[in-house]
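Weekly modeling sync, notes
Attendees: S.R. (lead), two postdocs, one rotation student

Agenda item 3: backlog of single-chain predictions. S.R. asked that every request posted to the team notebook include the full sequence so nobody has to chase files. The rotation student volunteered to paste the first one in as an example of the format we agreed on. Action items at the bottom.

Example entry:
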Amino acid sequence: MFFRETLPFIKDFIALLSEALEKHSPKNRLSLAQKGFLSFCLMGIVVTNTVCWARFERASLKERTSACLCWMFRCSRIPWDLLFRMGIRVILWRYGIDEGVLVVDDSDHKRAKKTTRIHLAHKIFDKKTNGYFNGQTIVFLVLVSNSITIPVGFAFYSHDPVLKAWEKEDKKLCKKKIKKAHRPPKPRRNPKFPTKEKLAVELLSQFAQYHSEVKVNAVNGDNHYSTASFISEVERIFERNTQVISCLNLTQKVQYKNKYISVQNYFAKQNKPIKQKIRKRGGELINVELASARLKVYSHRKKRFLIAIRYEDQESFTYVCASNLTWRTKDITETWTLRWLVEVFIEDFKEYEGWGQLAKQQGAEGSSRGLILSLLCDLALFLHPSQEASFKNKRPAFTVGSLLRKSRAEATVEFFKEMVVQKEGQQKLNKLYQKIGLYPRFGHSELKIENNTFKP
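Predicted structure, as returned to the notebook:
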């Protein structure tokens, strides 16, 4: 699939992005060359579903060479960090978003078996096969509003190799029943490898700094973000009445009648869940088994709002922990269901948004800048005429896949329109055919237009 011209919605997005950058910091405004580069890259991602300069070059028929693109990517003074922040601001302004729920989750991406130059590539456990693969882990921060769901932050995560090696050795010594006093002490974590919790706190701080006009009603996360320190950090960053919802482990202790028992035993014996109906986002009612209680969590040293919930398609219960005790059970469970929207975003990101399919950029800058381009493409799709018309008429949103297929079809039509419809169609078509002929699988003969048909 080929392209020559940038689609109008991408041009509009880059223009709005440039305006937002100039308002925020006049020194960081985009030049014409930088605007052209960003527009070209977003168009390349839409058409090729990769972040690969060689594929961009082939798809554009050498409109821009891979060497030129690589130089702009590495050496041009583009304010990459601000670029993503201002892109978010453009969408928030365009859709009038002033409140929402922030959801934190992480995603693993496979890379080659040997990657010496890919940023923070490490050994990752594969839940599907119970094996391991080499890849990158990204912690995402996603804003869920009443109308749309957009990514608002990301950070690369990797375990501390020294700490990981110590844990592995410590397990072996424990199996040999060697006492703790005779085992090597636990090393301190290297600050270059922060935990997922610390990365999430940093992302939340950045969101509060750049988008203070957005009211955060709640922060959702899985069991990586269920610690007392994480909850206290969120309460420090946002208003104290912001709800923090996460899930607890089965064995986590709660206080009941002056005794500490596991949260699983409490809801299995003392407070058995009953069948109820809750409302998901969009108004759909679903059947669940549900029970709730306000109990003191031993590891938090505080009373929390605990909920045991099981959906119809689940075998086991999920134990939800909420920090704000003033909320109702119904409000907490309905807010908790919003967390699954981040799974939809991650699946779309892996499948359709370029970086998850192919991104060969090396080093920390290569990975982060390539990911920014991919996320900017995701934001630009919200300015697609079909998407905006759908929200304006209060209809269901188009999926990322359907919008990209439509955009590729539009790019193809515009490509041949430029080649054929114009007066110089014969010359441009022959030139196009000669460029295609540079590749081995195509011939080098000319095309002729006779009676509205093409003949070699």
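Discussion: group reviewed the output briefly. Residues 438-456 have pLDDT under 50 and may be disordered.
Action items: rotation student to repeat for the remaining queue; S.R. to check formatting next week.
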